[in-house]
Amino acid sequence: MNLEEADSLSEQIAKYISEQIISGELVEGERIQELRIAKELDVSRGSVREALLLLERTYLIEIFPRRGAIVSEMSAQQVKALFDTNVMVLGHIVQRISETWRVNEAEQLQALLDQLMEFVRAGDIEKFYDAIFKYLAEQQEMVANPYIMQFYKELLPSLRRSYFLTLNTSRRELQESFTLFKLVIDAILIRKSQQAALFMEDFCRHLRNLVLESLTRMKQIELAWARRSRR
């Protein structure tokens, strides 16, 4: 793999591992093989260890003495906690955007809506949610709170891991997500900051429910396979 120059080496390695976790290539409870990662990327094990320390802050892995790094569990309780936290963080972010946007930012919001509509038409669930959460992560200037933004960026990989489970949901559900997020944008553009936060909560609750439904189906399939393998 050719690592890009934009981020530090440890950050690039962390992104590489996080994508394997988000996509399900590395599953919950699995130990991260430092030597395998080092060989795949042609880097030192020390660089991999630095990357794992960064990754631990995103809640995708846990590091244990003498056991190493383990992919974090994704349970219904953890999904609920993740979205409860994101509701508070994203509520603050959209409130600040409502209060501080200028003409060029309003144009960007409209362009975002147009892009999201294209993703809905194409049924591209991953790009739809990626576009929303990436846009919100890039609004440091309008939010003007580096602590909130840093915390949100550290939550983002776990959020991506959760909505990756929804990639097989229906286009009707995707359309519902678009409708809910459009309410957020509409409230921002008329500077109704509290309404924007409430609509963001509705949007997050809808996505949380989709994730929980997908997670339940996945766990049921895993249980069925486990029972068959014991016969």
Automatic annotation (TrEMBL):
GO terms for molecular function: DNA binding; DNA-binding transcription factor activity. Residues 7-74 form the HTH gntR-type domain. SMART domains: HTH_GNTR. PROSITE patterns: HTH_GNTR. Gene3D superfamilies: GntR ligand-binding domain-like, Winged helix-like DNA-binding domain superfamily/Winged helix DNA-binding domain. Keywords: DNA-binding, Transcription, Transcription regulation. PANTHER family: GLUCONATE OPERON TRANSCRIPTIONAL REPRESSOR (PTHR43537:SF24), TRANSCRIPTIONAL REGULATOR, GNTR FAMILY (PTHR43537). This is HTH gntR-type domain-containing protein. It comes from Acinetobacter parvus DSM 16617 = CIP 108168.
